[in-house]
Design brief:
The structure holds two protein chains of two kinds.
Chain A (H helix, E strand, L loop, with lengths): L2 H16 L2 H5 L7 E4 L4 H16 L4 E4 L5 H9 L5 E5 H8 L8 H16 L2 E2 L6 E2 L1 E6 H7 L4 H7 L4 E4 L1 H5 L4 H8 L5 E4 L2 H9 L5 E5 L3 H5 L2 E4 L9 E7 L1 H4 L2 H8 L7 H12 L5 H11 L20 H7 L1 H36 L3 H13 L2 H12 L3 H25 L3 H9 L4 H31 L12 H10 L2 H30 L1
Parallel strand pairs in A: 1-2, 7-8, 7-9
Antiparallel strand pairs in A: 3-11, 4-11, 5-11, 6-9, 6-10
Helix pairs in contact in A: 1-18, 3-16, 4-20, 5-6, 18-19, 18-21, 18-23, 18-25, 19-21, 20-21, 21-23, 22-23, 23-25, 24-25
Chain B lengths: L4 E12 L2 E12 L3 E5 L6 H7 L8 E6 L2 E2 L5 H7 E4 L11 H5 L1 H5 L5 H11 L4 H4 L9 H13 L5 E5 L7 H18 L2 E6 L2 H7 L2 E6 L2 E6 L1 H6 L4 H9 L5
Parallel strand pairs in B: 3-8, 3-9, 6-7, 7-8
Antiparallel strand pairs in B: 1-2, 1-4, 4-5, 9-10
The chains are: A alpha/beta, B alpha/beta.
Chain lengths: 517, 246
């Protein structure tokens, strides 16, 4: 029995490596250009356009869409785990450099270009042409009833309205704090909402005011009214390709990406976003037609087109994507299997060892428990400077998350295993090792297995977060679905993940019956 | 020391923190003899018993088993040649009865370990065909305690240590097991040290009784001797309480 988990682990690791061309090829030369995005519709679309134009100019591309958020994507770029992703100059100025807002787009671009080059050797390519800024939106009915057209109007009635804002917006100097000061604006209440749910919350009347982006396709979808920034508080943000040091050594790639510079107007972008976010066209297909319309890539450009499938039910949506879902499930299972297997191999012996020393055990186990309290996304973000993005940091994070239940149950199970049987066994001449092997361990097996099952189920859920650092798995459609506010897409990741959790638990339950029979 | 002394303790001291468990105690058990240690909880009787298989090591004093100083013997090897029956049976709940009773022969690497286990079951009155493949939880408390006795006997030890072996059983089952124990002693002639808090049991099973109190022996003597001439008020009181009087 002892050899089995290790063998299984090796097998799983091997298949995972095989299923991860990006990891295997990263050291080959010339390596694929790694194109990433942040998890919202426009970022997906721009990254897909970057990828397609690079492919059309003869570069091999590895796509890592939907990385956590600014913090994760930028750390990944800095550490060389990705080569390029679309970013906004204002975000660079405020969120990354921590500077004060500046209303002039030209000087913002000059500032971030200089600072990013000097500090990190990272380059902003010339902006894509459109500006995107925060937009404060209300329902049309609210705007009509309260006669709202501008943010000054909103300030008049703000104390009667409930705001649902992204956490990002609530915290940033150029978000709610600055806005409140500039307009003397107070809301009746402020609730932090995920981008994915804020539109639905507004449409359903759960909140009255939300923040969005001026190029958001969803503003049109929900027929919202954007209030004019009559005091010019929100600085305009220009979108541009942010390029890491590695890719800068390939001038051809910079030239290819620069072909998009200055080519996308705000109107065009809103239309394209609308196709992705409202009409539910796949981002890669929208990118193909956008590049063709711009005359940059022939319409026969290589596209991995999926059926759009408008208006179909969840089940037929899932059925249509079964091959993709199956591949994602397999990937997910491998992430869970490898990290959980490693956690078992580490935590069970550790629990046995701690049981022997007793006195230091509780503090040690509690220390491991602290890992459990770290938010998943934060742990993943910590991993990036050390391990980059992709499968390896995800496995390490999932491994760390899996330790505690296994460790705690092993320790408790072995400590409390039938004391009278343990006493008799040693009084009749079993060595301590024999007592462990033949008495304590078998009697603790159900408790240890319960710990492993707890870890496994938690792990299947946590592994969906791995999508935010580009490790793939069932988190991919969840992250993308959250970004695009597409419930079916979310379900195409969440349902298989739930079934997988049940299946893993059932399989481990069967193992438990075999082990403890 | 006379040649026929199997168990010998001399001047044992044992302290747990501020509590004195053994207060310079000495005791000899002759070959084939059964000595009962009787006393209240905390009188040190279990501690003394455990010194003979080194489950406890005294702070000072000397313990001999078959003339050998146990401090010089590997405790594992010592335990494998001294039988032991705990109060709660202490059977391994995940092992079948057959494997439980063959435990010590297996630990000692005896080639006929299975036969020894089956013979021991037979000795305590359990038919191997009926019991060997069952798990401890399928047995009654009395049957489990019989298995515990069989397990202690399976490797044919010269000495058996019993720690309140029948204390948790109902009166009828206890009487049955006591009869079995008397018969086994007659047939096998092993040396036994028996811890009990039941004076009737001690008088029924033991050749000699040692009354313990606060880590010392108040009186040692044959049951009749104890009954007829209690050496201290404490012993007298003990007899009265158990309604054993001359």
């Amino acid at each position: 029995m002892r050899g089995a988990p290790v063998g299984l682990l090796a097998l799983a690791a091997a298949s995972l490596a095989a299923a991860t061309p990006g990891v295997a090829q990263q050291r080959a030369s010339p390596r694929a250009v790694i194109v990433a995005s942040k998890p919202f519709g426009e970022s997906y679309l721009l990254a897909e356009m970057f990828a397609q134009i690079l492919e059309a100019r003869g570069f091999r591309v590895d796509r890592r869409p939907g990385l956590g958020a600014t913090e994760i994507a930028f750390r990944a770029l800095r550490s060389g785990a990705i080569d390029v992703y679309p970013e906004y100059t204002g975000t660079g100025l405020l969120a990354i450099l921590g500077e004060a807002p500046n209303p002039d787009p030209g000087s913002v671009f000059a500032k971030v270009s200089r600072e990013f080059r000097d500090r990190w050797g990272i380059r902003w390519l010339p902006p894509l042409g459109f500006q995107n800024t925060y937009a404060i939106a209300v329902r049309r009915e609210t705007a009509t009833r309260l006669r709202l057209a501008t943010l000054s109007d909103l300030a008049r009635v703000g104390s009667t309205l409930r705001a649902g804002l992204t956490a990002d917006f609530i915290g940033r100097a150029d978000g709610l704090p600055g806005l409140s000061k500039a307009y003397s604006l107070r809301f009746r209440s402020v609730q932090a909402l995920l981008p994915a749910v804020k539109y639905q919350a507004l449409a359903a009347g759960k909140v009255d005011v939300i923040d969005g982006y001026s190029t958001d396709g969803l503003i049109a979808r929900y027929d919202l009214v954007v209030l004019r920034d009559d005091r010019g508080f929100f600085p305009p943000y220009e979108a541009a390709a942010l390029v890491g040091p590695e890719l800068q050594r390939q001038p051809g790639a910079l030239v290819a990406l620069s072909e998009l510079s200055g080519r996308l107007s705000e109107t065009q972008m809103r239309t394209l976003n609308r196709r992705v976010e409202v009409d539910r066209e796949p981002a890669d297909r929208v990118a193909v037609s956008a590049l063709a319309d711009l005359g940059l890539v022939g319409s026969k450009a290589p596209a991995r087109v999926e059926a759009a499938g408008r208006g179909e039910g969840v089940l037929s949506y899932l059925w249509e994507r079964r091959a993709n879902i199956f591949a994602l499930t397999l990937r997910h299972l491998l992430l869970v299997g490898v990290s959980l297997g490693a956690a078992v191999v580490a935590a069970v012996p550790l629990g046995l060892g701690l049981e022997r020393m007793r006195s230091g055990a509780e503090p040690a186990i509690r220390a491991v428990g602290v890992i459990q309290t770290l938010p998943g996304i934060a742990l993943l973000a910590f991993m990036i400077p050390l391990l980059g993005i992709g499968v390896v940091p995800a496995l390490v994070a999932l491994f760390l998350y899996s330790l505690y239940p296994i460790l705690r149950n092993t320790y408790t199970g072995v400590r409390d295993a039938a004391p009278e049987a343990v006493g008799a066994a040693s009084a009749l001449g079993m060595t301590p090792a024999q007592v462990l092997r033949y008495v304590r361990l078998p009697l603790a097996a159900p408790v240890i297995m319960a710990g492993i099952r707890t870890s496994a189920v938690l792990n299947v859920g946590t592994a969906t977060l791995a999508a935010f650092i580009g490790a793939g798995g069932l988190g991919d459609p969840i992250a993308a679905g959250l970004a695009l506010s597409d419930t079916r897409m979310i379900l195409s990741g969440a349902l298989p993940a739930a079934l997988l959790a049940l299946a893993v638990d059932a399989v481990l339950g069967a193992c438990e019956r075999v082990v403890t029979a | 020391m006379p040649a026929d002394v199997t168990l010998s303790a001399s001047k044992l001291w044992k302290r747990y923190g501020t509590v004195v468990a053994l207060d310079g105690i000495s005791l000899d058990v002759r070959r084939g003899e059964c000595v009962a240690l009787i006393g209240e909880s905390g009188s040190g009787k279990t501690t003394l018993l455990r010194c003979f298989n080194r489950m406890t090591d005294p702070d000072s004093g000397r313990v001999l088993v078959d003339g050998e100083d146990v401090a010089t013997i590997d405790p594992i090897a010592l335990r494998r040649r001294v039988g032991y029956v705990p109060q709660d049976g202490g059977l391994l709940p995940h092992w079948r009865i057959g494997r439980n009773v063959s435990l010590v022969p297996w630990l000692r690497g005896m080639p006929d370990q299975d036969e020894r286990g089956m013979r021991a079951l037979q000795l305590v009155g359990l038919e191997p065909a009926d019991f060997a493949t069952r798990k401890p939880r399928e047995l009654s408390g009395g049957q489990r305690q019989r298995v515990a006795v069989a397990r202690a006997l399976a490797a044919d030890p010269d000495v058996i240590l019993l720690d309140e072996p029948f204390g948790a059983l109902d009166a009828i089952t206890r009487a049955d097991l006591q009869e079995t124990f008397v018969r086994l002693r007659r047939e096998l002639r092993f040396t036994a040290l028996l811890v009990t808090h039941d004076l009737h049991e001690a008088m029924h099973l033991a050749d000699r009784i040692a009354v313990m109190r606060q880590g010392r022996i108040e009186q040692t003597g044959a049951p009749a001797e104890l009954r007829d001439t209690p050496a201290t008020d404490y012993v007298h009181h003990l007899l009265e309480r158990a309604r054993v009087t001359a």
